[in-house]
Amino acid sequence: MFIRSLQAGVAVSALLFASLAGAQPAVDWPSRAVRIIVPFQAGAATDLISRQFGQALAKEYGQPFIIDNKPGAAAMIGSDAAARAPGDGYTLLMTGPASMVTNRFLYKKLSYDPDAFEKVSLVAFTPNILLSSPSLPFKTLTEMVKYARANPGKLTYASFGTGTTSHLAGELLKSLAQIDIVHVPYKGAGEAIPALLGGQVSMYFDTIMTGLPFVKEGKLRALGVSNSKRSQMAPEIPTIAEQGYPGFDIAPWYGIVATKGTPPEVVAKLNASIERLLKDPAFREKLVHTGAEALFANPAGFAAMVKTEIPRTEKLVQQSGVTLQ
After folding, report:
1. For 70, phi and psi rounded to 5 degrees?
2. β-strands 65-69, 34-38: how paired?
3. Is residue 325 in some structural domain?
4. pTM higher than 0.85 for the full model?
């Protein structure tokens, strides 16, 4: 759904943004180093993607784009730091579903306002795949659903954390397929993959970059891709949507936002640079090596996508039974 909602938002807003961006005067930005806050640890997917953009933008502008990792508290520490920075265009945040959408339904109070940031651009997404153990008595998604309906509550699915897209993908599947499968949260693939290989859980929504090697080795089965389109990294794996669940479209996405008050001409200039990067086949290939695929949107399209995701995410969080912290 997030890709379809993005496409709808872009269609509505593209002409308007193009006219506004074209009307902006030339701006001397950046004239010094730019900081990109990453609310996750070094080596995480968000970090790797941010470094690709930082290196490319530094080359284009002749100024450093410094990656500043501020992990912790479900991306809230880094998001709060970005929200408190001056709105001058020299502090950016590489954000995603947690910062912009999910946290508002997991916590009673946030230290930052997710709606206050200046949206710059969507930049990428990470395809997820539903993995299962070969020892289980099903080989396809259809067979899994049939088995789950005949054995309610018997199957479990791992995720890389409560409230993550990995968790909410399971909730969406439960809703659309009308099955009873039990969520088992872990702290990432480092815990979830061994649990799946060891038989402690039945299934796991994992990023394709982490899970695909186990599928190719025959240690795990891939039941479907969580996006509405097949992944270019594994085009042979069908989507969950095409296997009878057309509303299934959920995966981690990444976007760049700036502190509130950042001049619109800076936002327009940076958005144009990102669009050029994402049209470059060589840069797109670099993203694939981090496990991500390009996903561009202008600020209005980005905002429209987030607006669409909010009610759907709220419904899935409520369905999961997670209590506010």
Report:
1. -130, 75
2. parallel
3. no
4. yes
